[in-house]
Design goal:
Length: 242
């Protein structure tokens, strides 16, 4: 695992956007795995800024998001679909038919999980997967205890994950308690992985990931079984590790 320590959230966002841009500019066809939540917002802002200033094109980029809430249609403003359209897809003009997000409003959720997993298997895993990390060590919405062999599946979110994401819902009663997520083995198919962590709240998760053993109790520890993982973390997040 390569660890890049940066001063703060801003620098983390700049460095990660740079790595993503290098990939976009160096390949004729690129597949990106994308995350939502607070952590990658700065990275997406940097990508949008670069697109506006330098005109970087995304015609050859295909994207695969990690997860989506069960019960939210893509048109729902609180869905991850809407988040991605607002923060990245529309501003950098990625053709929308080249973007993929699990359909949390599918009638047959199990079939939807299989469809999504097959999509990723067919491309042999994404070229570069962007990840955040949950305070309990989750990646995607793979909560502690998820088997490392898991593929895209339906998950019951833990109280700590629901609490951490509550701020994104205007009405807490409408916050979905289930999600569809790429599994750990789906994520590990990625050719390269970039995990971002910023701030005090991620200290324990990073400590368990970097100093602890490989265990299903800490989903992110599965990344130690992958040979091309880069972690970009700020000094606050790395405080217990240093
Ligand atoms: C989001 C995702 C989650 C988040 C994690 C951290 O697509 O899969 O694993 O990366 O919950 O969330 P933030 O960045 O909001 O702290």
């Amino acid at each position: 695992m390569k660890i890049i320590e940066v001063a703060d959230y801003k620098e983390m966002s700049r460095v990660s956007a740079q790595i993503i841009l290098e990939k976009i500019k160096s390949q004729e066809h690129v597949t990106l795995g994308l995350a939502t939540g607070g952590t990658p917002l700065g990275t997406y802002k940097e990508l949008v800024k670069d697109h506006e200033e330098n005109g970087t094109r995304y015609d050859h980029v295909h994207t695969y998001n990690l997860d989506e809430y069960v019960g939210l249609a893509s048109s729902d403003p609180e869905s991850y679909h809407a988040y991605m359209c607002e923060h990245l897809f529309h501003p950098v003009h990625i053709p929308l038919d080249q973007t993929n997000i699990p359909n949390g409003a599918a009638e047959e959720l199990l079939q939807e999980c299989m469809r999504y997993d097959t999509l990723i298997e067919n491309i042999g895993g994404v070229d570069l997967q962007l990840l955040g990390i949950g305070q309990n060590g989750h990646i995607g919405f793979n909560e502690p205890g998820t088997p490392f062999s898991s593929k895209t599946h339906i998950v019951d979110l833990t109280p700590s994950t629901l609490e951490a994401n509550a701020e994104y819902f205007a009405d807490r009663c409408k916050q979905p308690t289930r999600a569809l997520t790429m599994g750990i083995s789906t994520i590990l198919q990625s050719k390269e992985i970039l995990l971002l962590a910023s701030g005090e709240k991620k200290q324990e998760a990073l400590f368990h990931l970097l100093r602890g053993e490989v265990t299903e109790a800490v989903p992110a520890s599965a990344l130690k079984m992958h040979d091309r993982v880069t972690i970009i973390a700020d000094s606050q997040a790395l405080k217990l590790v240093n």
